[in-house]
Design goal:
145 residues, alpha+beta, seven-stranded antiparallel beta sheet, 3 helices
Length: 145
């Protein structure tokens, strides 16, 4: 597949044109990805106040006792979305490491692969968490190991 970008001041908004000889699954996947853009805003609640959380601030998102939280350097915020809904709003720098946790790869300090069957992850703020056995293969693919 070839990709061409044309920068022209005459355009006031981006325009995407796909030139192809036939429709394929790859083209359909691209169209689907481009047309379904969920909002990337995540609102966190702390001390009866709502705050917009920038994805770059978030270290991890986890569920505990049926509630979902986002942890940042400034503190922990309660979220009113399910983990799968939040996962849809985040980019590829966030990865699910268990059924109850999503981490920011940009906030990872290191991975300890010495544990058998799982991976220990150290995040910013010296937060330690573990990749569940079910997600070890996915994490290794993301990391290229």
């Amino acid at each position: 597949m070839k990709i061409e970008v044309s920068i022209n001041e005459a355009y006031t908004e981006p325009k995407i044109v796909i030139c192809t000889d036939k429709m394929t699954e790859e083209i359909n996947a691209i169209i689907q990805k481009l047309s379904s853009h969920p909002p990337s805003i995540i609102t966190g609640f702390r001390d009866e106040k709502a705050e917009i959380l920038e994805p770059s601030q978030i270290i991890r998102i986890y569920s505990e006792n049926g509630k979902v939280y986002a942890q940042t350097a400034e503190g922990t915020y309660r979220l009113r979305l399910c983990l799968y809904e939040i996962e849809e709003r985040l980019d590829k720098t966030f990865v699910r490491i268990s059924n109850s946790e999503i981490i920011s790869l940009k906030k990872v300090k290191g991975f300890d692969l010495s544990f058998s069957g799982t991976i220990c992850v150290t995040l910013a703020g010296d937060i330690v968490t573990y990749v569940s056995r079910r997600y070890v293969r996915k994490i290794k693919q993301v990391l290229g190991i």
